[in-house]
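User: Show me sequence and structure for the first protein, then do the same for the second.

Assistant: Starting with the first protein.
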Amino acid sequence: FLLFVYVAGNVDTREQVIYIAAFLMIGLVLESLIMHYLMLTGKTFNVLTITGKVATAEGAAGPFTRVAGTMGSPIIAATYLELLLAPALGILITKPAPWLRNLALAGFGLGALALVFTFSRAAWGGFILSVGFLCWFAWQRGWLPKIAPTLIASAILLILAVFFTPITSRI
């Protein structure tokens, strides 16, 4: 939150906003890739001073793996992802330069899937609210195509179909 307060108070030009947004998206992509690796391997790693962690939790369907990434806790990792996913979608809506659009698309796709792997219900709710408000405002202003609600609903149904058992055991 304080990062956004700093940006709002100190950034003056469009180039500065793009510079900051690009580095936020790079961080989102890198952390998401680490989280995907941890989910696939299920093992904690230690490289120099960077530690990737995986936590095991008990659910209604038995034990399951929660990914913490390099943050130390699945809750903190989920908060980080949830905080950056709405700006990533906002970048996609604004139609920036192709390199930034591709970076934001990779960040949003990888980050949304990594958010599922954290199994943080509060972060899921925050993600739904922030992206929902962003999409609603963009829809009201005519920035989203008419097919957008269908695509969003399809993406939600796809995620639920693939991760139905882990998600429902967590809810």
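Switching to the second protein now.
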Amino acid sequence: CSFECSICNKSFLRKATLVQQIVSHTNNRPYQCYICMKSFQRKYNFNVHLRTHTDSRPFKCYLCNKSFKQKNVLRYHLLTHTDSRPYKCEICNKSFCKKSVLSNHLLTHTDSRPFKCEICNKSFRRKCNSNGHLLTHSDSRPFTCEICNKDFCKKSVLSKHIFTPTDSRQF
């Protein structure tokens, strides 16, 4: 017994998976983050996202005790403990343990920047970088420095601020 999506004709073994597929064809995103306002179609993705705003790192590497916010990031990290690097860049000979990382790396060898900010026209190689950049244009500043109380739009900018020597830090 299988369940077929009437929109894209994909088949699924479980009815719940079919329902998820049908929802994926809509713009319905009922789960919205109260911190950054990002919205999600699936509760699971929403819950994973919420961890990005906390220090919770429930997934721990049994080899080095490093911990992660997402299970798939831990899975990828485990590959770093092996010598297996089967994916090789034909341009610079650098090798990688995952094909997707090689694909991202290949972008560094091109001038292509297909993702453009509609506000300032800055362009990016990857969509995730473009999306992160958009936060710099918003008034939302959910990340606060515990030392000086300055607010930041992205966690990475807060981290950079924290690790900048105090005498060169801008307050």
